[in-house]
Amino acid sequence: MTSGLWELVLRGVWVTIQLLVLSALLATAVSFVAGVARTHRLWIVRFLAGFYTEVFRGTSALVMIFWVFFVLPPAFGWQLVPLWAGTLALGLTYGAYGSEIVRGALAAVDPAQREGGIALSFTPWQRMRLILLPQAVPEMVPPFSNLLIELLKGTALVSIMGMGDLAFSGNLVRLALQESAEIYTYVLLIYFVIAFLLTRLMRGLEKKLKAGVGKVPVREPDLEPKRPETTHVGGAV
User: Fold this and answer.
1) What's the Cα-to-Cα distance from 228 to each of 116, 221, 224, 234, 237, rounded to whole Å?
2) To pair with 58 at 20 to 30 A between CA atoms, which of 9, 51, 130, 162?
3) Locate the ABC transmembrane type-1 domain: which residues (predicted)?
4) d(Cα 24, Cα 225) in Å, to the nearest integer?
């Protein structure tokens, strides 16, 4: 490819990274708000959080992008730029999945920890902030890592709005060169590199958080075969 086409691809990578960071921040905030709300003592709060979760988990992210970008403007009289429309649609969609991660991690905390907070006369917010979240957050990191990778792949959906992300830029280069195999191979490799870096970053975060609460992260299995132990008959090993 020429330098101009590579520049187009790199601009697409930058747009994808911006969209990924913004939508991940929104999804994280929504995940914690909705996830904690699903454990609230008031049924109306649990109902509203559950309603949001079921609605956004049960709808297509692609259709949600269409709805935010094409339906909201005539309904409310304002238009979102593609970057913010994509951020809103992806953040709310993946935040619904993340809320289940938060709810499940909070529910997995030992009930004795909750009882200890009650015995110490902690308020519900103090129990959540000082006891439950510090123990639950490290357990959220692996599933959040998977969700982040899914979000990265979901950013390609914004190309339907004409947004110049990596997928859209790759398609423009393909049309210019009429070389599908080469261009899409490059695009796949770029997505893989970004996903690999995100995975390593999240693993480092998991180790740091678990070390902070005195837990040792589960080590990955050793892929190298172990040598069988040999013994000598009538002698020492």
Assistant:
1) 48, 17, 12, 19, 12
2) 162
3) 13-202
4) 39
Q: How far apart are the first and last CA of the chain?
A: 62
What is the value of pTM for the model shown? 0.83
Residue 157 Cα distances to 74, 96, 165, angstroms: 22, 18, 9
Work out the pLDDT band at 225, boundaries 50, 70, 90: low
Confidence at residue 235, expressed as pLDDT on a 0 to 100 scale: 46
Distance (Å, rounded) from C-alpha 189 to C-alpha 193?
Answer: 6
- What would the pLDDT profile of 31-48 be if each residue is shown by its tens digit? 999 999 998 889 999 999
